[in-house]
Amino acid sequence: MSRWQPDARARLQEAALALYGERGYEETTVAEIAERAGLTKRTFFRYFADKREVLFWGSERLEQMMVAAIEAAPASASPLGLIGAALDAAAVRFEEAREFAGPRHKIIAASPELRERELIKATSLATAMAGALRARGVGGAAAALAAHTGVTVMHVAFEQWVTDPGRAPFQQVARDALAELRDLAAG
Amino acid sequence: MSRWQPDARARLQEAALALYGERGYEETTVAEIAERAGLTKRTFFRYFADKREVLFWGSERLEQMMVAAIEAAPASASPLGLIGAALDAAAVRFEEAREFAGPRHKIIAASPELRERELIKATSLATAMAGALRARGVGGAAAALAAHTGVTVMHVAFEQWVTDPGRAPFQQVARDALAELRDLAAG
DNA sequence: AGAGTGATGTCACCTGGTGCCATCACCCTA
DNA sequence: TAGGGTGATGGCACCAGGTGACATCACTCT
After folding, report:
1. Using a CB-CB distance cutoff of 8 angstroms, which residues of chain B are in contact with residue A144?
2. How far is the CA of B73 from the C1' of D25 (A)?
3. What pLDDT sits at residue B22?
4. How many Å apart are CA B128 and CA B63, to the nearest integer?
5. Which residues of A sit within 8 Å Cβ distance of B?
6. Fewer Cβ atoms within 10 Å of its own Cβ: the N or the C terminal residue of chain A?
7. Are A123 and A117 spatial neighbours (Cβ–Cβ below 8 Å)?
């Protein structure tokens, strides 16, 4: 019998998601999360930089996957095609965590503090994507604009996907959203 | 002789700007800001919701001015023309506070916490502008996209303006940036 | 068997932020 | 002119997020 249960990080994440969902983010204390996970406040802060970050752990992984998708796209791809490839990669990631997406999204939407954190993650993602686009030869200003727009499209699609009772695959929703953008830009 | 000096809010803002600039945001405590302004911590929090907000007071005013500019634009204006009108209004506001723009921008750029706050202000601004665009007949999704893009252009222009030693008027920098965007979208 | 290592607990501490009540200058009115 | 609002401020206690320093204990390696 080991002294410590395994997967402390995952237990903390589950406990946080549950408590934030039950009582709300602000009404939940870090000590309560830790207790529910069978740990202490101090240990919580060893795994997560702050009370918000527990909901965003893994966002670097999404960033890596979308950047990799841009890097791996065929040489013939247009800038918008590269964004499409990145969105396909995001689809894979979102479907992986499908079960948590809804509750997590609801919690974040309800708290300004968490929305702030989400926005800075989105900016970080857009910056990384812009770098990847530049490496693929997309011009500087266009790269930043395309990346930010791509992230905006992703959020729009995510919102639809997560609130859609039928739950069409994210990939399809995202592709539709991107096509809509294309029409808007053309029209 | 009155018990209180006038303009407590302005004094707190000046003290905060000075201290954040001298020591950095995180290294400055609210008690220190209050003391420098001849007040107490408790009073600081009567004027500002938190330690960050002292740098963002007045952002509703910018929002109002940009929205008003969209509402007042000639009926013949295109969506991009409406964004241009909003940027002109922003120019008026920025030139008003020209002397503080540089230090303030530097402080915000140096602190993730402050960047988060700036991002949520930008989102709020974009949302308000999108509403004004819709009221002017711009279609729903296009309105949101145009508004967010407009705010992005504003930030790009601001960055150039604030770091430019020659300090061309913001209006001119913003118009150039908008023209660049137009070319990108067309090309 | 003993030293080393890594995850955790414990404790003290600082700071942001809030609720509650006291204080005091000013204004208004009788 | 006395006295009762009123509004801005101070003072204080308190909670929660977050951190540094050190102790503890299971496990591993030699």
Report:
1. 156
2. 72
3. 97
4. 7
5. 112, 115-117, 119-120, 123, 141-142, 144-145, 148-149, 152, 156, 180-181, 184-185
6. N
7. no
- How many Å apart are B34 CA and D11 C1'? 15
Q: Which residues of A touch B156 (CB under 8 A)?
A: 141, 144
User: Residue A22 and residue A93: Cα distance in Å, rounded?
Assistant: 26
Place of tokens 């994440």: A13
Show contacts of A125-132: CB within 8 Å, 24+ apart.
Answer: A125/A59, A125/A62, A125/A63, A125/A66, A125/A151, A126/A150, A126/A151, A128/A63, A128/A66, A128/A67, A129/A66, A129/A67, A129/A70, A129/A83, A129/A86, A131/A67, A132/A67, A132/A70, A132/A71, A132/A82
Q: Write the pLDDT tens digit of every residue in B22-43.
A: 999 999 999 999 999 999 999 9
Task: Evaluate if pTM is beyond 0.85.
Answer: yes
Indicate if the alpha-carbon torsion angle B125, B127, B128, B132 is positive or negative.
Answer: positive
Per-residue confidence (pLDDT) for residue A58, from 0 to 100: 92
Nearest residue: Cα versus C1' of D24: A3
**Strand D bases, protein C-beta under 7 A:** 8-12, 16-21, 25-27
For residues A87 and A174, the answer to whether their CB atoms sit within 8 Å is yes
Placement of tokens 């930008």 in the chain: B122
Contact between chains at A145 and B116 (C-beta distance less than 8 A): no
DSSP summary character for residue B13: H
Q: What phi and psi values does residue A20 have, to the nearest 5 degrees?
A: -60, -40
- Contact: A120, B123; criterion CB under 8 Å: no
- DSSP summary character for residue A57: T
